[in-house]
Amino acid sequence: MIRLSRMGARKQPQYRIVVIEKERARNGRPVEVIGTYNPRTNPARIELKRERVDYWVSKGAQLSDRVSKLVLKSAAPVPATSGSAA
Questions:
Q1: Sequence spans of domains, the chain
Q2: Residues sharing a CB contact under 8 Å with residue 1, sequence separation 6 or more, in sequence order
């Protein structure tokens, strides 16, 4: 399962995006840390290793609801290439 693990001080949440077994506690020992999420910055900062997310999903890992939204939000748009070189 790929989900958020809370870090940071009280009332100042920061999260790690982790691969963890479904039965483990929220902040239990993860299999791998694949990113971070800081909702307190403006705009919220998302750092994500996309190739590792794709790898774990190919192995059968499921994304939590919040992580799936963050993955969509962090997807960098591919720049359009123009046909003319002016």
A1: 2-74
A2: 19, 20, 21, 22, 61, 62, 63, 64
* Series of mean pLDDT values for 10-residue runs along the chain (86 residues): 94 95 89 94 92 92 93 67 48
Residue 6 is predicted with a pLDDT of: 94
Burial class for 15, CB neighbours closer than 10 Å (0-12, 13-18, 19+): buried
| Residue whose structure tokens are 């994500």 | 48
**pLDDT value of position 78:** 43
CATH architecture, range 2-74? 2-Layer Sandwich (3.30)
C-alpha dihedral sign at 34, 67, 39, 25: negative
